[in-house]
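Researcher: I've been going back and forth with a colleague about how Beta-ketoacyl-[acyl-carrier-protein] synthase III might be arranged in three dimensions. Neither of us has a model we trust, so I'd like an independent prediction. The organism is Salinimicrobium catena, in case that matters for your notes. Sequence below.
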Amino acid sequence: MYQSKIAGLGSYVPENVVTNDDLAKLMDTNDEWIQERTGIKERRHIKKGDGNTTATMGVKAAKIAIERAGISKDDIDLIVFATLSPDYYFPGGGVQVQDMLDINTCPALDVRNQCSGFIYALSVADQYIKTGMYQNVLVIGSENHSGGLDFTTRGRGVSVIFGDGAGAAVVTRSDHNGQGILSTHLHSEGKHALELSLKGPSTLHWVPEIIAENPQGDDIPYYPYMNGQFVFKNAVVRFSEVIMEGLQANGLDVKDIDMLIPHQANLRISQFIQQKFKLSDDQVYNNIQKYGNTTAASIPIALTEAWENGKIKEGDTVVLAAFGSGFTWASAIMKW
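Model: Here is an independent structure prediction for Beta-ketoacyl-[acyl-carrier-protein] synthase III. You can compare it with whatever you and your colleague have in mind.
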């Protein structure tokens, strides 16, 4: 079997910065309340007329990753696009990226695993390369949350958390034995699906039915719902489990971690895991303070920044871990 590695990384976030004080003008909240609960100071939102969509942001991140990988767009054998906020109900974002990059009939598929979407997509790329089917796979995580959030006091528990942005990685065949993606580990527990969900519009909640059932707009199922405390309690357990699962599968221990990139769901979750594993600030990378939770985009954005800032070096053991809606959770262990 072949080995796969990340050969190029890229990210993109909209220029429009939305601070906690900006949100306080729209709902009953304040900077202290948001930072205390989430660690978030600001996030980026698409601004009307700026040309950004989930697909176009993914393309902007992808172009950077492709250039850094030292390949041509025509060398891409497969596109794997992870998002919960596609431009269209269908088709998915992967084919849009293929078209926007002008890649000739390249296969494209979409992953709908929300917060763990990028690691799931990375796992797909890893397996395609290891089996020899493809040589270069473009993996993208991109999200446009701001267009579908409830910016009233009713929705503040969710709406203050999320931001927009995209990250991308070119995963390629590696000739270096022992370097690259060592293993990926994926899990789900669907019995908790509705604890973090957006019910509609969907085939169970079409728009005309929603309007007919809620003429006053009192209970609108096309805004996200999150049982925050329940999600937090499950997240810290599953994060720990899936990180240890990955380490043990490769004969590694917590002390071998050079860099942990957790999904940027909530700074308090990351801090809990850091303290539990007794990791230093130099061993964990967080940027939720600047971007909020960008769901499938959060890990590739953070991974790109960590690499750009020189915090990841050749030979480092890098761990990616995520938990989110589904519930789904995942980890990836890499030797950089």
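Researcher: What would you highlight for our discussion?
Model: I'd start with this: The chain has two domains: 3-174, 180-335. After that, consider the following. The longest helix spans residues 228-249.
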